[in-house]
Amino acid sequence: MDAPRGIGTFAVWDYLVFAGMLLISAVIGVYYAFAGGGQQTSKDFLMGGRQMTAVPVALSLTASFMSAVTVLGTPAEVYRFGAIFSIFAITYFLVVVVSAEVFLPVFYKLGITSTYEYLELRFNRFIRLCGTILFIVQTILYTGIVIYAPALALNQVTGFNRWGAVVATGVVCTFYCTLGGLKAVVWTDVFQVGIMVAGFTSVIIQAVVTQGGIDNILSDAYNGGRLNFWNFDPNPLQRHTFWTIIIGGTFTWTSIYGVNQSQVQRYIACKSRFQAKLSLYINLVGLWTILTCSVFSGLALYSRYHDCDPWTAKKVSAEDQLMPYLVLDILQDYPGVPGLFVACAYSGTLSTVSSSINALAAVTVEDLIKPHFRSLSERSLSWISQGMSVLYGAMCIAMAALASLMGALLQAALSIFGMIGGPLLGLFSLGILVPFANSVGAFVGLLSGFVISLWIGIGAQLYPPLPERTMPLPLETYGCNSTFNGTNVMTTTEMPFSTSAFQIQNVERTALMDNWYSLSYLYFSTVGTLTTLFVGILLSLSTGGRKQNLDPRFLLTKEDFLSNFDIFKKKNHVLSYKSHPVEDGGTDNPAFNHIELNFTDPSGKVNGTRL
Length: 611
Fold this sequence. Notes:
Number of helices: 22
Number of strands: 0
Distance between the termini: 71 Å
């Protein structure tokens, strides 16, 4: 590498590109606020009137899963720990299949807006409330971090104004969510996926040119031990191995794709179940594309800095600043392109935040307002949904401000996602897959799963795993023209967003810390899910769960699977919004006819769901 020149800074063009991205997103919101008669009902606002088609929904699912944490974090992860991260490609496939074949059929045939409505139908209102509150807390925490993390990283490298960025993204998001509802969220996501791929592509192409071809990048990566695809060590304490990524990753991501309101709300908004499944499978291609881009960016990052690591040389202060640093290093001669990359990182943020805001509004209206104020008209519910979007938008910006004060809590709050997601996934699996599960089993299962997840999660924050567990690869600085002499190999194990404020220093390590707290972070969710399922099953059996009279619609039945092949027989039926069946032949499930379904008890619930 020749004598390193200074890296560039942000110029006017870059700000213009970034502002353009925000502006187009806002315009889409205004368009959907007035297109097709606007948002007449809360169903239009929250569910896009259930008329969405597969491709935009698929792109939207991809976009919202891809936050700036992915754009900045994955390349740094590959740079630091190697390309084993790409095994997630298999994980995504498993997650999509489980979501499409297990969770989607049940949610879709019930025609619900909030996934937590299912919990009341299957168990009782109290359990629905538990699920809703957990979701709201988890989402606001997560969203604040998603807004703040990129602002911080980009600010320190590019001098991009941190609070300007936080407020601008928060306000634009809230603006188009409030005006355009789910349709605006989905279509802005489609636009933002385009920006993300463009941002990644520009970096990759320029890196290939700078480094003299793909072969050079791969041989650098190979020599630096970065192409470590196969690590079949079954030890659950190793951070990333083939098994932790396949098993732990599948549980962690299924809790997001299968039962998280932000994702489920979108695919249930498709016009038919076939379109809904299709959207999940098309989204898989999107996930693979983004994964390939980010892993390759990480290898390019290593190739560029393999003999002079900017992190060790104190040019950047955290790992997630490496990617912006690379962009300013190799793209400084192209006005506007660094701006495109920042727009790419923020597109990830916008799409994640907008889906969270829309999901929070849906859950609040469906789970907390509708059951208590039954007399509200559709028009006023639509206004309330919009009010909720504004409120949650403001709360997410406030949460981002809080995140700035508790920098060390960032990693902790990201782990909270796994800690809360796992037990919730267990709760839904209990309802859908275990016919004899009852509300007692569900509640105690949820509670115990949650307690155990929190125990591991918080323990791992206080006593982080040792370097031989996380296995960071060496970083060299011998090529730097600085005061460093000789080979300076640094093997720190701090994660980005290190939670050092909470690490308890110089403690005699006990067996509990070295084994239980050192569990790979991907298994937090797995432990939560399995505990919830196991306790739930045992308790339901011992409290008379077999005696309850359940409506088969609340379970996954073999007809749900067989209906995949209906598309070859005749045109697929579009479900009506409410889950009551239509004429003969139009019932959502041919396994039973409408006479037994229409038998309701005085409270208006289908018989068999009151416990």
